[in-house]
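Quarterly update from the structural biology core.
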Amino acid sequence: MDFATLIGLVIGFGAIALAGYVGGSDPHIIFGRWDAFVLIVGGSAGATITGFPWRTFASGVTNGFKTVFTEVDFHEREVISTLVSFAEKARREGLLALENEAAAIEDDFMRQGIQLVIDGRDTEIIRKVLETEVSYVQERGNKAEQVFSSMGGYSPTLGIIGTVLGLIGMLRGLAAASASSNVTGSIGVATAQAFVATFFGIMMANLLWLPMASRIKERYGQLLLVREIMIEGILAIQAGDNPRLLEEKLLAFLDPRDRELGVSEGGGVSEGSLSASGA
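Predicted structure, tokenized:
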């Protein structure tokens, strides 16, 4: 579980709830209008389903929530350390010596690449296979991001629609309200209730859907970076590159501050870092 996501949601929605109470407004008007909430969520989902095939929408929502709420540490330096240790062993004992190491790798992508090298596949074939896998992961991430971005775009518009419907109902009841002894109060409450839909629409877009889309984009960007490091490392192992030169080449993918930390000798790939293939 990614507690940073939960903390962000609690702070965001908590601030909204606190503002509703401290601001002097009637909390029942805001948080009691569940019909407005249903309009925003249901309407945004319906509009998004209309814009995407059902399979794309369903997989986007599933992968999106899983990506947002699952904490993953990709450990790029440990991946580099593992590839460097593989290169050292391959230069000393040959590519076939990596058979046992390949079987122990938990990440499907890296294991597949090392196995292709052991099997003696052509460089272009290996690159094509791995880049095709990367393209699939990238496409899956893009679809999930687009689904959540679309819901974030539709929510404020649905909120305006809900407000318009509320104002129409208020105007229709204006004649009846005029007979009441508290016309001003009745109109004020009705107007406030009408704008609750706009409130929910803007809130859902800016505290939920759009931040989630940003998190999905960032997470898949990290995953793609790790995949690029693996591809370059696997092809360098096949080419028999010098392990030290390979280490410098792969460290170039990292932020300069991370490069200064260096890579420990003979490090392994942790379970948490390479189980991200299903992200």
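Confidence is low (pLDDT under 50) at residues 262-279.
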